């Protein structure tokens, strides 16, 4: 049901707020099993099966069965994988080549399963390293799985569906509103494009009235609003149980800051738009547990050998489950992880633990009025249509109120895409910024071959920029 109605989302968002609220409340009453379909229930049963298993070797067998089934379905039906040997063991699996975004962009049609041509959901990612990519999820499966997984994951911290949540992430609100109530999921949504000293009192008034129990945010956006809320802490009329933070790197200093300020458990999780793997903190540990029900993860060194030594950094390579429309096998995420020395946790989890994950910065652009906007929200969170026509890009800010975007264009990038990109970005921050688009032949890489996506010459600290 959710996927069929998703095409009407833009129409729903354009409705007057009272009408939108009315329809949202009606939709909210529909049980999740109906809203998200059969796979919501199927995945919940899978989670229960994994969590009820005390034998770690049996968990590995359960995961491998799902992995081999996914891989062999791809070998049968997807052109890119048809040359692969049938996967009957991990030894065979580890012989398959590692792919990355460039591989997918260069052979895009070869990754599509023709049997699912009418069961695809088009989406894209800006990529934290500046390499955009379009891809497909599976209709009636991918979104249902994501919802079921996070309903379960957040439940470890006391969350129940429809609990009041303050959300500070995602795309800009219609008409550049600063906040809006989402009656579908019982959210008070704060625009991470409009948080500044001029409206912070009004925001606090609405937060106090709503009385959220949980927060879901980008770390960078939460930091902006928290710094601005500091003078008004005594006026808080709400208590937070847990703070869910994803899509960016969370520093130890920021974790401590949020924990102390809100007197709440801070939960950091790792995932990506491709929805291949998921890892997150638990109630007892700040390590990232990678859940075997969701996908298959490898931590590899520069020679693509598995890392077994603790406190060693390697690249995160992912194979997703439950996407037959466009399966991705041994996909280099572009992120780096550090292997933890813990193999079994107090929460009962046994499996791959990463102590740290690197590769997703907390970067900001600064608007003309000195408002700070998370780069994750400004670029990655908008899933811009132009992304699929851009090979690489880089954002440069030399002075407040102006940015340059260096773009390595594909042959399909046109003036229309340039205009659409510029207008969408400008609209999201209410035209409070000058944007210059530069066509370049290449973007300089780091010594490890990764893009430097954001370059800023603005060195003032967080608090200075907000006043």
Report the sheet with the most strands, covering strand number, pairing sense and barrel closure: 12 strands, mixed
Cα(first) to Cα(last) distance is 46 Å
Bin the helical content.
25-40%
Molecular shape: globular
Strand order of the largest sheet: 4-5-3-6-7-8-9-10-14-13-12-11
Number of strands: 20
What are the low-pLDDT stretches, counting only 5+ consecutive residues below 50?
Answer: none
Beta-strand residue percentage: 15-25%
Helices, by number, come to: 15
Helix and strand composition category: alpha/beta
Whole-angstrom Rg: 22 Å
Mean pLDDT: 88
Write a brief caption for the model.
The protein has helices at residues 2-6, 9-13, 17-28, 32-35, 38-51, 56-77, 90-93, 101-106, 142-155, 200-210, 219-229, 252-262, 375-378, 415-428, 462-465; strands at 120-125, 133-138, 165-168, 179-182, 187-190, 214-217, 242-245, 265-270, 279-282, 285-290, 295-300, 313-320, 331-339, 353-358, 364-366, 372-374, 390-397, 402-409, 434-439, 454-456.
Can you tell me about this structure?
There is one protein chain. The chain is of the alpha/beta class and about 475 residues long. Helices cover about 30% and strands about 25% of the residues. It has a 12-stranded mixed β-sheet. Strand 1 and strand 2 (about 135-140) form a beta hairpin.
């Amino acid at each position: 049901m959710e996927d069929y109605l998703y095409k009407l989302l833009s129409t729903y968002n354009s409705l007057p707020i009272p009408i939108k609220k009315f329809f949202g409340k009606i939709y909210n009453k529909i049980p999740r099993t109906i809203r998200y379909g059969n796979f919501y229930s199927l995945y919940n049963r899978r989670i229960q099966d994994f969590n009820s298993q005390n034998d770690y070797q049996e968990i590995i067998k359960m995961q491998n069965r799902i992995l081999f089934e996914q891989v062999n379905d791809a070998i049968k039906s997807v052109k890119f994988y048809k040359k692969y040997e049938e996967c009957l063991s991990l030894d065979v699996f580890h012989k398959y080549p590692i792919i990355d975004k460039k591989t997918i962009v260069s052979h895009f049609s070869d990754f599509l399963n023709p049997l699912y041509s009418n069961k695809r959901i088009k989406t894209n990612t800006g990529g934290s390293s500046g390499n955009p990519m379009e891809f497909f999820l599976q209709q009636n499966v991918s979104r249902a799985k994501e919802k079921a997984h996070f309903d379960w994951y957040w439940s470890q911290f006391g969350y129940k569906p429809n609990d009041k949540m303050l959300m500070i992430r995602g795309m800009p609100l219609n008409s550049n509103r600063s906040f809006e109530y989402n009656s579908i999921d019982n959210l008070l949504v704060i625009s991470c494009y409009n948080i500044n000293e001029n409206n912070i009192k009004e925001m606090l008034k609405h937060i106090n009235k709503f009385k959220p129990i949980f927060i879901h945010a980008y770390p960078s956006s939460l930091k902006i609003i928290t710094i601005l809320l500091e003078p008004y802490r005594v006026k808080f009329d709400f208590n937070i149980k847990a703070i869910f933070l994803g899509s960016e790197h969370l520093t130890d200093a920021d974790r401590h800051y949020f924990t102390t300020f809100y007197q709440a458990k801070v939960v950091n999780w790792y995932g990506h738009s491709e929805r291949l793997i998921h890892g997150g903190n638990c109630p007892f540990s700040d390590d990232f547990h990678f859940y075997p029900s969701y996908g298959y993860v490898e931590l590899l060194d520069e020679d693509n050998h598995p890392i077994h030594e603790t406190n060693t950094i390697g690249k995160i390579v992912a194979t997703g489950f439950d996407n037959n429309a466009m399966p991705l096998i041994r996909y280099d995420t572009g992120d780096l992880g550090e292997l933890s020395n813990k193999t079994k946790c107090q929460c009962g989890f046994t499996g791959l633990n990463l102590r740290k994950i690197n590769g997703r910065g907390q970067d900001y652009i600064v608007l003309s009025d000195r408002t700070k906007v998370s780069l994750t929200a400004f670029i990655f969170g908008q899933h811009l249509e132009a992304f699929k026509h851009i090979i690489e890009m880089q954002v440069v800010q030399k002075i407040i109120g102006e940015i340059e975007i260096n773009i390595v264009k594909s042959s399909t990038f046109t003036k229309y895409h340039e205009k659409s990109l510029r207008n969408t970005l400008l609209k999201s921050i209410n035209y409070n910024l000058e944007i210059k688009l530069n066509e370049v032949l290449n973007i300089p890489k780091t010594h490890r071959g990764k893009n430097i996506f954001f370059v800023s010459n603005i060195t003032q600290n967080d608090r200075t920029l907000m006043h």
